[in-house]
Write a structure and sequence with these properties.
The protein has 752 residues and is of the alpha+beta class. It has a four-stranded antiparallel β-sheet. The protein has 28 helices and 14 strands. Helix 4 packs parallel to helix 23 and helix 25 (681-690) packs parallel to helix 27 (705-734). A hairpin with a 4-residue loop joins strand 10 (527-534) and strand 11 (539-547). The relative contact order is 0.06.
């Protein structure tokens, strides 16, 4: 068999590529990689022997040095015949297989140990951090994803006897005795081992994903991580404190862990460490932060009293809220999960919304005379200068009259949103049971809670409409956007400020920029199909797209999440969706809006399709994606590796088809749109069909074989649509009829 030479750094085989041959390494070496593992093949090893059962590769192979390869065309069905032709070749296949099995199994055991070890490392560091904070009188900060962190659990693990079984099997088939060297037996041993190797790699993928999750808690681009917790603590206590050496040692240990995690962004890691070391060097030179002036402190003094006085709540309510806030301020760990802490947060939450409601209704009578502290209460959930921290309180005080929102550009503070509802510019949102205001009143009447006369009166009462919004949408969404549901408390507290407020403030400009980024990739994201007719010029019925961007409401909290609350207003499909994010957003705003856009696409498709949203006989985004996930195990277009990814993905998505789609949509916008493939063939084809890339991106990706087939189909359909409009336009020109602007815009939209 001829040997083909390859230079170092050549990718021989990509994961998910079809397997049509086995390749023997005649000289040199090859690096084999899979999610969570790497091993090396040398002279005499066989590329593909671990995967031949499946007919496709789930390992990627790249030459480490100049390498010679001899290829033997072979499939699983032909393996026994090939082995029967050459005993030496058969022995080479089997020996290489068991050596690779041992490499992969050893990595499985090492990764299992690493996952258990790093989980306990993280929990120990968190308890240590909280202890340091308590000792020095600081309120510990809580990381958004810590509530969801649990030890690694596997749905299916390897049998305990598997290691011993293969150890004995290796000894049997590699001994010189010929009784085990029958081709059918050897082929069977290979094909059975392939299935076990694929299972091991599938579990290693789960280990890898778990370690990646841990890595993001240790360090991430948003600075919501353990590295920042400890670094900020060190900056606060100072380099000369007795505990500074211990805290510094803990930071060094975190850095060591990060260096061993393959999923961490090395460039980000180096940048963060450089920033830390620079700031550490400057610690002895004094803080560069400006102290809060006496004027600022005077401006926000006695904030709680100002708010309670303005709201004109009864004496008992005011006293109870003041007592609750004082108790909360004295708590060392405001995120504590014990019953007393949980009940206190729930009590404050109930009292907060009662006071908010009364203060808001009063503000409607004379908006111009609202005290700035009360505006801070409305827009930030602010109640107390000490609880917020004087520097934060001063910043909010100076900010509240120049908030960078703009209702004309569809970006509202929550106070602006409530005001728009009261003034009849917006209708109330649906409640958590998906009932709009008229439906809610009808349900109340049917339950006997109100009369028919009450229903008729309340229907157009602006006060009742805004109260419906404050009592239904507001509490639910405020908690969701905060991000940490179990430790939610609606009042502004310094311990929730995980990075600088100025850098996390959401503005109308930022929202517009983020949506432009998304629409530059998924140009049709917010277009709705409507029917255009114009019988006077012979246009009977044309489907055209109308772009309707969503309303963005900024909730009064320091949070990490967003939510697509509803896709349309009422039943009219050309009304804007409603999306909510925190006014101080700790996570990346663009990433959050990408996720909400995926949510919107799913829900809008369901709205259009109605009861047939998952009926595959009527092609749509939801029906095709639902069918793909429901029957992925039987899909012959998917490799074994792709099926494992889907299984793990559904586990992370808690078996939600919608959540699974949103995750794929995020990968589509953030990675595939940049030319970095992350999806499997089936998912990619479905999303490209219904969420096509813009023309500029399609042109860039045209040469990529992963997109070629799908793009060709898209181009054929697009040319048919454009040809239709060219014919319509020509007929109008022939009769001297001006082309309607709606049709002109539709053709321009199709050309995007």
């Amino acid at each position: 068999m001829a040997v083909k030479e390859f230079p170092a750094g050549t990718q021989l085989i990509q994961s998910e590529q079809n397997l049509t041959a086995l390749h023997v390494i005649a000289k040199g070496s090859v690096c084999a990689t899979y999610p969570g593992g790497t091993f090396y093949l040398k002279k005499g090893d066989v590329i593909g022997i671990c995967e031949i059962f499946f007919g496709s590769h789930f390992i990627t192979y790249e030459t480490e040095e100049p390498t010679g390869i001899a290829s033997y065309p072979c499939t699983a069905a032909q393996l026994s015949l090939l082995m029967s032709k050459s005993v030496d070749l058969a022995n080479m296949f089997v020996s290489s297989l068991f050596r690779q099995f041992r490499e992969i199994y050893d990595q499985y055991e090492l990764m299992r140990f690493d996952c258990e070890n790093i989980y306990h490392f993280l929990m120990d560091r968190y308890e240590e951090y909280k202890s340091f904070c308590v000792k020095h009188g600081f309120t510990p900060r809580a990381l958004p994803d810590m509530e969801d962190l649990t030890p690694l659990t596997l749905e299916e693990d390897l049998e305990r006897w598997l290691d011993g079984y293969y150890e004995q099997l290796t000894a049997m088939v590699t001994e010189k005795s010929s009784k085990f060297h029958k081709p059918d037996f050897l082929a069977g041993a290979v094909l059975k081992a392939d299935q076990d190797i694929q299972r091991i790699i599938s579990i290693c993928r789960a280990f890898y994903d778990y370690k990646a999750e841990i890595a993001s808690l240790l360090m991430n681009e948003n600075h919501l991580d353990f590295f920042d917790l400890y670094a900020s603590l060190l900056y606060k206590i100072g380099a000369n404190d007795t505990d500074s050496t211990t805290v510094s040692a803990a930071i060094s240990t975190i850095m060591i862990q990060l260096e061993d995690l393959p999923s961490i962004d090395k460039e980000m890691y180096q940048q963060r460490v450089a920033e830390y070391r620079t700031k550490l060097e400057n610690l002895g030179e004094g803080s560069d932060e400006e102290s809060t002036s006496a004027d600022d402190a005077a401006d926000v003094a006695q904030s709680l009293n100002t708010i309670l006085s303005y709201a004109e709540v009864d004496v008992e309510t005011a006293a109870a809220f003041r007592e609750s806030v004082n108790k909360f301020a004295k708590m060392t760990d405001k995120n504590a999960s014990d019953d007393a802490a949980r009940k206190l947060r729930m009590t404050i939450t109930k009292q907060f919304y009662v006071i908010y409601e009364k203060a808001f209704l009063k503000s409607l009578a004379d908006p111009a005379s609202i005290p700035k502290v009360v505006k801070m209460f409305f827009n930030f959930g602010y109640v107390d200068e000490n609880l917020a921290g004087l520097e934060n309180a001063a910043y909010l005080y100076n900010l509240v009259d120049k908030l960078p929102t703009d209702p004309k550009r569809k970006v509202y503070t929550v106070y602006e949103w409530f005001t728009a509802i009261y003034q009849g510019q917006k209708s109330p949102s649906r409640n958590e049971f998906d009932s709009d205001f008229p439906t809610f009143l009808r349900e109340q009447k049917m339950s006997g809670n109100i009369t028919a006369a009450d229903e008729a009166r309340m229907q157009n009462d602006p006060k009742e409409q805004v109260l419906f919004e404050i009592r239904n949408m507001f509490p639910s969404v405020n908690k969701i956007t905060f991000g940490r549901v179990l430790s939610f408390c609606p009042i502004f507290s310094e311990h929730n400020v995980l990075k600088e407020l100025e850098g996390s403030l959401v503005s109308a400009d930022q929202v517009e920029t983020a949506f432009k980024t998304i629409r530059d990739i998924d140009f049709s994201a917010y277009y709705r199909d409507v029917i255009y007719t114009n019988p006077d010029i012979g246009i009977g019925k044309e489907t055209i797209g109308v772009e309707v961007l969503p309303d963005i409401i900024l909730m009064p909290n320091v949070g990490t999440r967003g939510i697509a609350w509803q896709e349309i207003e009422g039943r009219k499909r050309t009304t804007p969706a409603r999306m909510m994010v925190s006014i101080f957003q700790m996570e990346d705003l663009t990433n959050i809006l990408v996720r909400l856009t995926g949510d919107f696409r799913w829900e809008m498709c369901k709205r259009v399709q109605g009861a047939r949203w998952n009926d595959i006989s009527e092609a749509s985004l939801t029906s095709e994606y639902f069918d793909y996930i429901q029957f992925y195990r039987k899909n012959q277009e998917l490799s074994a590796d792709a099926k494992d990814k889907i299984k793990l993905g559904m586990k992370k998505a808690k078996n939600s088809y919608k959540e699974m789609f949103i995750r794929d949509y995020e990968a589509w916008i953030l990675y595939e749109g940049a030319g970095s493939p992350r999806l499997n063939k089936v998912s990619r084809n479905i999303i490209f069909t219904y969420c096509p890339f813009s023309k500029e991106i399609r042109t860039k990706l045209m040469a990529n074989p992963l997109y070629k087939e799908t793009m060709s189909r898209y181009d054929i359909k697009l040319s048919q649509k454009l040809h239709h409009y060219d014919n319509v336009f020509q007929k109008l020109k022939n009769t001297g009829t001006p082309i309607p602007e709606e049709l002109q815009q539709q053709r321009e939209y199709l050309c995007k």
